[in-house]
Design a protein that fits this description.
The structure holds two protein chains of two kinds. Chain A is of the alpha/beta class. In chain A, 39% of the residues lie in helices and 25% in strands. Chain A contains nine helices and eleven strands. In chain A, the strands form two sheets. Chain A has a six-stranded mixed sheet with strand order 7-8-9-4-10-11, sandwiched between helices. In chain A, helix 3 crosses helix 4, helix 3 packs parallel to helix 5 and helix 4 packs across helix 5. Chain A is globular, with a radius of gyration of 18 Å. Chain B has a two-stranded antiparallel ribbon with strand order 1-2. By secondary structure, chain B is an all-alpha fold. Chain B contains twelve helices and two strands. The chains are: A alpha/beta, B mainly alpha. Chains A and B meet through helix 2, strand 7 and helix 3 of A and helix 1 and helix 5 of B. Bound molecules: adenosine-5'-diphosphate and magnesium ion. The site of adenosine-5'-diphosphate has 11 residues of chain A, from strand 2 and helix 1.
Chain lengths: 251, 289
């Protein structure tokens, strides 16, 4: 079953066609690697998928429902990290996440436990009560990932995710993370995928990371999707994703 | 929808109470009111001051500062989140942009309410304690009562309530600016310029239609407060009309300008509506990067 499907999505900025006829397909349970060089259009796609900007043409469908008409229902089970994560710097990391949980309608008595679990999972529980202003770049990134993961951490019984497993969109989640952080996040994503059936769309330019993490990949070049399929299909006998990527993009 | 907006307003208040600027705003406002009252008390004069005179001076100072801060809170409400980049994080949550916008608007109303209540309660309490509220008598013919203490008090309460209308309209003007301008610094700068003199400029250029905005506009209400304190009934007909509407006894021989009263209540509401609707339209179409 497809969680996400885009049909001929296009978006220009002025004269620059940032995205051209993009047709993505992400199935339930996928960890989809959305690959592309800097400026390929990954962040633009993600902004469109989250409804932060609008396409000039094309449609975005979640479970066959168009995003344009069903954004509220859809966003209940979608979480996202876009570009560089940003927070209220005068609040603690915990309070920032608390606000997002409140906004999602999670009852107060469930939030405390959920936040502890979430902060523990992304490895910033020790600094959770410090102001975000004092966080290092890596800590902000971890907090950003935590904010995107909220729908995956809500117990089904709470019912704020509309009965759907979470769909989490992460824009270059490894940015600013140290090697240990990268491994921790990779394991966390795999764990949530397995234990909570969460589906992921992860944009990255780190091909070796995608190779370790994803079961499906799509390669974006200058706003166009040049190939999409399972990791094996796309690698087609090449010894690494890097050499396959080179073949498709002429890098 | 209402429940969702209520939830967002609670989040807004949660943030507000953790920001220093909120305490600076309330602190300075309270200082302006209390400072004026205390300064008057300890300035030697020949004639003892009437409580209403002190109250009006003090609250006019308070309202002027509150108006500036309400304008600043309004102009920061969306622009500060755009500048900091947090708007995108907030907009990923399952809300309509209109709901977020209304929550911001309601929060501005609440800030206006909090500051106004502070000004009025502190003003009333301090003046009551230091001066009391006597009849307003003529300075030369002491036995001629311009306005009885009870009547003056009632009119003060009327002003205290309706002053909220222009304050909210001013806040919504700030909110409107913050949908247009992405940089928080520039939004506040432009709002402050309007407060200081662009408002007057607009008033001079387009006299009638805009003359209800900004300083001058707020003054219109504050003048009535000044009137109460002197008992000279320049603008006080408005309160006499309200008296009549409320079924209270009105002074005889007054011409009551009903149209004027309706206008003074309606104009800020029209401005507030205009600014919020335009702001909403702009905000809904915005790319959030
Ligand atoms: N708001 C914007 N205005 C103008 N151009 C933009 C805007 N956002 C992105 N672009 C352009 O669109 C292209 C794709 O950018 P982006 O989606 O951020 O790439 P990626 O995330 O893959 O690095 C780039 O050329 C970028 O300069
Ligand atoms: Mg990017």
């Amino acid at each position: 079953m497809l969680v996400l499907k885009t049909e001929n999505l296009s978006r220009r900025f002025g004269k620059l066609p940032a995205l051209d006829n993009l047709s993505l397909e992400v199935a339930a349970g996928d960890i989809y690697g959305f690959l592309g060089l800097n400026g390929a259009g990954k962040t633009t796609t993600i902004r469109l998928l989250l409804g932060l900007i609008r396409p000039q043409s094309g449609r975005i469908l979640y479970y066959d429902q168009p995003l344009a008409e069903n954004r509220l229902a859809i966003m209940n089970y979608v979480g996202g990290l876009v570009d560089v994560p940003t927070f209220y710097s005068y609040l603690s990391g915990r309070d920032n996440l608390y606000i997002l949980c409140r906004m999602r309608g999670i009852p107060n008595d469930k939030i405390t436990g959920l936040l502890n679990e979430l902060l523990e999972a992304v490895g910033i529980i020790k600094r959770a009560d410090d102001k975000v202003r004092t966080y290092s770049q890596g800590m902000r990134q971890r907090l950003g990932i935590a904010s995107a993961l909220i729908p995956a951490f809500v117990p089904t019984a709470v019912g704020t995710t509309a009965g759907k497993p979470a769909f989490i969109i992460l824009d270059e989640p490894t940015n600013g993370l140290d090697p240990k952080g990268i491994i921790e996040m990779r394991n966390l994503i795999k764990r949530l995928n397995k234990e909570r059936n969460a589906t992921f769309l992860i944009s990255t330019h780190l091909l070796s990371e995608a190779e370790k993490l994803c079961n499906k990949v799509g390669i974006l070049e200058s706003g166009k999707l040049v190939v999409q399929g399972s990791l094996q299909e796309v690698m087609k006998g090449k010894e690494s994703l890097e050499s396959a990527f080179g073949g498709f993009t002429g890098m | 929808m209402l429940k969702r907006i209520y939830r967002l307003v609670k989040v807004e208040l949660f943030k507000l109470l953790r920001q220093r600027i909120f305490y600076i705003a309330t602190g300075l406002t309270v200082l302006a009111v209390a400072g004026t009252i205390l300064a008057d008390k300890y300035t030697p004069t020949d004639n003892p001051l009437n409580g209403f005179t002190v109250l009006s001076k003090a609250t006019i100072n308070g309202f002027a500062i509150a108006a500036l801060f309400i304008l600043i809170f309004g102009s920061l409400s969306l622009s500060s989140e755009t500048t900091a980049g947090v708007l995108k994080m907030v907009l990923i949550a399952p809300y309509r942009r209109s709901e977020l916008f209304f929550a911001k608007a309601i929060t501005i109303k609440l800030i206006a309410l909090i500051l106004t209540a502070l000004i009025e309660l502190i003003g009333l309490a301090l003046v009551w304690y230091l001066y009391g509220f006597g009849d307003i008598v003529d300075p030369t013919f002491k036995d001629y009562v311009h306005l009885s203490g009870a009547e003056a008090f009632r009119y003060t309460v009327y002003t205290f309530i309706i002053v909220l209308l222009p304050l909210v309209a001013i806040g919504f003007f700030g909110l409107f600016l913050s949908t247009l301008i992405e940089s928080a610094g520039i939004a506040v700068a432009i709002a402050t310029l309007f407060y200081l003199f662009l408002g007057y400029l607009v008033v001079t250029l387009f006299s009638q239609p805009s003359s209800f905005l900004f300083n001058y506009y707020l003054d219109w209400y504050l003048i009535t407060l000044r009137d109460i304190s002197t008992g000279v009934l320049g603008e006080i007909w408005r309160f006499r009309v309200l008296d009549e509407w409320l079924g209270l006894e009105t002074a005889k021989g007054q011409t009551l300008d009903y149209a004027g009263v309706v206008k003074s209540l309606l104009v800020p509401v029209v401005w507030a509506t205009l600014f919020s609707v335009t702001g909403l339209v702009v905000f809904k179409r915005k790319d959030v990067i």
